[in-house]
């Protein structure tokens, strides 16, 4: 274990057919819980946050940060202590939006397909439906809230300073991390994991330790979400400007008497389409820092002329730097799950328990009393009748009438059909990688993304072991109160895999071959990363290779996903690099 970064342990009758399970499972993953309500989160009053329509045509700052997400917010808050910072966020504020702030509404934001939605849906070339954040606070406004740190080995391999890593995690945890209350479903998953050998039990801890543990959550006891945007409470209000609905279209390059490109600013448009320019102050060590995420960061580099020259020229983009590795190394940790209908009432819970196995799979779970809830007119989530249920219907037959029938069928289901939960597994890494390519020159358009799920056979092996472990948990004594005697494991697998959970073709042997089950039932857990990786696109100080005054600091730099869930480490990285940049610059200025 590396010095500095240490782990510190803290202590009915079922109604409905298999076809109903498709809609149930989809609503679980992507429509959310809706049934409960939470108290209103007190909204921080940020005097420095405003709509980009109020921005001047031209402005100057010491640091310009593109992307107010999980890394961008802590980074901006830290740098503002000593320098002027402009934080540009393409979306709006998370505050005042109950679909973001309330645990009971988990998934609602991802089912919102409007242009004002805090999420932007995309479908990878693999046929897996996914989402990217479009809101201040980034993916921490959309995810299931699980908070857990990276392993000491991950920290060592990244070359980070262990003491500063600990301090940076703790800095964020004081604002956004909580210990969850474990109730009946999560307790059964915990006990089942230990019963089948995912040992030892490590209690409540943020640390990444083999065995079964209770992790942290960014939802407080009242069910209120706390996001990376809350970390702006640390900001110096006189040193920071946060602009919402500010879509950065291009990084501006120039030269200083040499052929090496140097960044001097960005152009962005406000919600009215008006163009603005923001420049870094001349002289000194001012920089533009891109924190737009694993999709937005490589996309923006390419649109600005840094990327594979052939691809850029194909889109009539002037080449600033031929960098063929931008957009490469894209990975998404595949998620596979088994839905378990329950004869007993279950609590509304998101990820709380995790089994960290020795074979490279992480086992997690969520549950709810009524995953449907609400009005029959509701769009039933990311895999709604519009997206999922109708994916098996030929496009010409996807009429409003067919859609209406699917929604009506969902609404007619007995409430007991929505009682239960799912147990999922996510593999570590992964080893399989893909790539990102531009579709258009419009920064608001999703690029083409291929993740190549299970291309590496080791990823598939880990999935099979993970699903096999889930099967044993479901069949364990600890889980007996949450399963029906008359559902065989093969039936449970069939119910899940035959749901329209992705756009992939199904196979007859999906429930008898776990390898095929993994391939056919693959989903995302939104832990995609890569595209601007360390050692390929950026150096270990996150400076873009081949140009000056430009860094990328976010999950696009990761070569693998940290820990069981990455958000804690992405927040940590923003704070960590903010401190590093401040120390480097203050030392340089002190020696002048």
UniProtKB/TrEMBL annotation:
Q: Which family does it belong to?
A: Belongs to the GMC oxidoreductase family.
Q: Name one GO molecular function term.
A: oxidoreductase activity, acting on CH-OH group of donors
State the InterPro entries in the record.
FAD/NAD-bd_sf, GMC_Oxidoreductase-Related, GMC_OxRdtase, GMC_OxRdtase_N, GMC_OxRtase_C
Q: Which organism is it from?
A: Punica granatum (Pomegranate)
Domain Glucose-methanol-choline oxidoreductase N-terminal, which positions? 293-307
For this UniProt record, the keywords arranged alphabetically read as follows:
Disulfide bond, FAD, Flavoprotein, Signal
Show the disulfide pairing. Answer: 463-518
Name any cofactors this protein relies on. FAD
Does this entry carry the keyword Ribosomal protein?
Answer: no
Identify this protein by name: Protein HOTHEAD-like isoform X1
- Per UniProt, where does FAD bind? 135, 248, 526-527, 555, 566-567
